[in-house]
Write a structure and sequence with these properties.
By secondary structure, the chain is mostly helical. It has ten helices and no strands.
Amino acid sequence: MPEPQAASPRTPDATRRSERSRRAIFDAALALVGEAGYARTTIEGIAARAGVGKQTIYRWWPSKAAVLLDAFLDLAGQVGEEGAGGLPDTGDLAADLKLVLRATVDELNDPRFEIPTRALTAEGVVDPDLGARFVERLLEPQLQLYVERLTAAQEAGHVRPGVDPRIALELFVGPLTHRWLLRTRPLTHAYADELVEYALHGIAPR
């Protein structure tokens, strides 16, 4: 009677293993920035926290800033999946903008987003390439959603025909970002609502 054949060992799934490593690196980078701050976060620390070799990280990213950018984009993508269809369009522009800006306030006040966003914003000032990637991959797609919503409002007669949506959106997001970045005053839902009212109706006597 022939000897039973030993089961052949399963071939390791390199793709799955790589994805697990990437996920561990993303989680480690975000955790370390939150715990120790950007300046004290290192590639060595991320590698140790993720349980991977330092060269594994350098094979995929040139710097800790690049790691953090991809980790943050991944986090933002996970959280924002349900809103991927664009800004709400109920026909009430003010209500729609208030809803979105309130959600932005919540996100900017959430340490999961606030800490890496501040780190990437600061690093992007001294690293133009990183700053350009941050704008291109994260900020610009979000701003384009405002452009689309304001364009729809124009077509519906709720915004003057000559208004440039790309400039108009900065009336909302610019002041919000300024207050958050410089911590001039608390970032609240009430402030977001006032921004919408001021931007849509102006400050001159009616």
